Fold this protein.
Amino acid sequence: MALRFRKLSTGKIDYNMRIFALYGILYETALNFYKPFSVKFLERIGGSELEIALINALPGLVTLIAILPGALWLRRSEDTQLTTARLILFGRWFLFAMAFIPFLPPQYRAFGFLALFTLMCIPDAIYQTSYQSFIGVLFEPRARANAIGMRNKLTVPALTAVTLLSGNILTLVPKTDEQRLFIYQIFFGLAFFFGVMEYKAFKKFKVAKKDAGFARSSGREPLKPQVIKILSNKQFRFFALCSLGFHFGWHMGWPLFNIYMIKTLGANELWLAVISVASAITMFFGYSFWSRQIEKRGNSFVLPICTFGMALTPLMYAWSPNLYILLPTALISGFFTAGTLSVTLGALLEATPQDNRVMYIAVYNVLINLSLATAPMLGHYFFELKGIVFALYMTGLFRFLGTLLFFYRDRRIAKEKLGVCG
């Protein structure tokens, strides 16, 4: 069954799916005017390998501090949609501020960019918790895989166009470092503009009045009892621990891939764009394929397959002696990344009860960001210990261990179903 807009008698789901796709396009457009080149920008303004690792690790640390207080604040919100939209807009103001980084004295530029990039993660962290919970309200379980797959697929052309355009401009147009930094400033401004459009699109969703606010059955309960109750939910706890295991290996590789491409293989902005687009091409087709598999076989079956493919990525990086050989790696990686992105949110919503879901997702995001705060630094430690190739091998090992956890979870769920049927 191909990706399609589902039409119900009310037309509500069909309309929301269209807005969901539009929102996704605007989100990816804003993101890809700065995200693929953020590490290269950091390097060009004087950032070191340690700061490249920190740009991956510090956001996770800040997010850890922000998520649970943010979730408690969200539970007091009477309008989930408007609250989430305002968080989007607040986060995009940091992109506007980044455009002024080149005006700082050279010795403060890397620190200033790292600080803004990290602080931006506070509203973004609360937004992610709010957004993920909102999707659970917006789409019924049977429609989620189709909606997420459709959104992700339709964002690929925007991602490809923006990344290719910006990569070519940054490589071919500027003749001096000052001109290149000026173009980066323009791109941060464009990212802010599309972020404002993203905010406006999010406000267009149609949600039933009864679903306008977060479920607050435990809204006045202190934080500690809520967390204990959430962690006592066996289904959620097992999924969260499996996901934490895989995400640790996933996050470990983020700075290493950039270091390998930029420092070892000498990639410039154009090459970064080409590799990103190569990955996006297979992601475009991968979203359709994995959406069908999720609907046919379920989230728990698809998860270990996709994460196994992602466990191969750091190994293939290590085996790529130049950027031309790295291109097929990006193609393979994009296919399995599409599956992982398609299935993870659906699996999370499947493992969380609707009542108090925002707090469940907040606890889950705390665990994942605990990985984000530590795993990149462990990857950097392996890099300093025995070099980039050894660090990539270790990343592959950690990802493979996470895959085994998901495989064990799938077998356990299958046995439980057989026990119920028997």
DSSP finds 15 helices and no strands in the chain. The mean pLDDT is 84.
